[in-house]
Amino acid sequence: MTVIIRSRAEIEAGVEALRVLDPGVAGLRDLCGEPPLRLYPAGLEGLAWIIVSQQVSVASARAIWARTRAVFDPLTPARLIAASEEDFRAGGLSMPKIRALRAVAQAVAEGFDLEGLAALDADRAHAELIRIKGIGPWTADIYLMFCLGHADAFAAGDLALQEAARMLLNLERRPDAAGLAGIAEAWRPWRAVAARLLFAYYAHRKNRPGAPVQDGAENDAA
After folding, report:
1. Where in the chain are the domains?
2. How far is CA 170 from CA 32, 145, 158, 165, in A?
3. Span 43-148: which CATH code?
């Protein structure tokens, strides 16, 4: 059964389950407090936001998103497909992000159901999403975690999560995506809750107000 996070109740349920699966990661709840719910709109808007905001600062992401939404109003597949490169550039978007947005718009126009991925388990939903050209593993996982609320989605390629795991486990070096994915197997079926705890721990250790989605991963659209 796929668990969807829609409230703090699901997060607390996940934390309690993790206390059995891995008391170390669950203990981050006691150290850092309740992790943020952090949900974004599902569908085209949510995925577009993740693509637009990737690998830039929070302030830059918000500015670029505001310009992009002003250009694409309404934000629909048809509008994105018909848009010129100048339209995208007016929003401050790079060519990889332009290509990714166009590919997503085309996929949705042809029947790809971004919101319907919530009915699949996280691994299958991930596999379906990365079939869209320009959508890498990190983008797919962040969408599943924070737009659809998949309780078992996990962005193993996220640099902040990798560094948080290194600090928590006292590793000599930061694990790569494959290494962190292996570590995260112990947290199934609550990997997204473990990720929220690790994001909070990263922010705590770095004295930052939050671990932004924009940290991203090196292999997704920049």
Report:
1. 8-38+152-215, 43-148
2. 18, 26, 18, 8
3. 1.10.340.30
Place of tokens 């079939």: 131
8-38+152-215 CATH fold: Endonuclease Iii, domain 2 (1.10.1670)
The residues near 105 (Cβ < 8 Å, ≥ 6 apart) are 44, 77, 78, 80, 81
CA angle in degrees (0–180, nearest 5) for 44-190-125: 35
Cβ-contact 101, 91 below 8 angstroms: no
Predicted TM-score (pTM) of this structure:
0.92
CA distances from 50 to 40, 103, 212 (A): 9, 14, 11
Amino acid at 25: V
Q: Which two tokens stand for residue 135?
A: 């959508």
pLDDT in tens, the chain (222 residues): 789 999 999 999 999 999 999 999 999 999 999 998 999 999 999 999 999 998 888 888 999 999 999 999 999 999 999 999 999 999 899 999 999 999 999 999 999 999 999 999 999 999 999 999 999 999 999 999 999 999 999 999 999 999 999 999 999 999 999 999 999 999 999 999 999 999 999 999 987 655 545 555 544 654
Separation of alpha carbons 112 and 76, rounded Å: 14
